[in-house]
Amino acid sequence: MPKSPLPPGHSRESFPTTRWSLILEAGDAGLDAHKALAELCRIYWYPIFAYIRRTGHDANDAEDLTQTYFARLLEKGVIAAADQRKGRFRAFLRTDCHHFLIDQHRRHSRERAVASISIDTSDGEGRYRHELADGNTLDHHFDRTWAVTLLGRVLELLGEEYARSGRSLHFDQLKIVLVEGRRSISAATLAARLGISENAVNVAVHRLRKRYRTILEEQVAATLDDPAEIADEIRSLFDALTK
């Protein structure tokens, strides 16, 4: 099957070596690859925690297993053994964690590894309990929590950009359009809250959406081996949210 084209306005040069492609190319050797993997683990630990909880482990066991899993992932040899034909970090983690849990069950041991990464999982159970119960499969639930985590990360980075330019108030109001949809609030209401014209609101919303899309593509690219898969991965993430 031919790969999807790159997002409009982008070339392969627009997306330098991504975190996941760097990791795959280096196996698990090299400081840069190790740092890149550690950063991805810190961002996407929650889908693994939720996946483990959904398999029947209680909160304490899930926290321990999450820490153990990522400590193991950072050990030498694990990434080098990855099937590089499966170039999506999301798919790799989901499959690898499944095999990890099988191995843990077979050994009847959950000895905690000496962690080479610090991941704060303290809010994992609170987030897990907040989620609505559903009848989705384990894999679909993983993809959904992955999508929520990634989109939350995009919104966080966008908010930080606005804060650095002294526009936190604008972001707090304009992000309603991103989170709840354009019809959730009128341009007139936003204009009144921000003290600007409706035309200025429309321009600001357009710029916000454009920047949001750019950050989204950058964050998705960081989890892929091939930037040509960005559009497909974004579609997969939004499909996971709507099914």
UniProtKB/TrEMBL annotation:
Keywords, ordered alphabetically: Sigma factor, Transcription, Transcription regulation
GO biological process, one term: DNA-templated transcription initiation
Top-level taxon of the source organism: Bacteria
Cited InterPro entries: Fimbrial_Adhesin_Reg (IPR053721), RNA_pol_sigma-70-like (IPR039425), RNA_pol_sigma70_r2 (IPR007627), RNA_pol_sigma_r2 (IPR013325)
Molecular function, one GO term: sigma factor activity
One Pfam family from the record: Sigma70_r2
Domain RNA polymerase sigma-70 region: 48-110
PANTHER family registered for this protein in UniProt: RNA POLYMERASE ECF-TYPE SIGMA FACTO, RNA POLYMERASE SIGMA FACTOR
Name of the protein in its database record: Sigma-70 family RNA polymerase sigma factor
Organism: Singulisphaera sp. Ch08
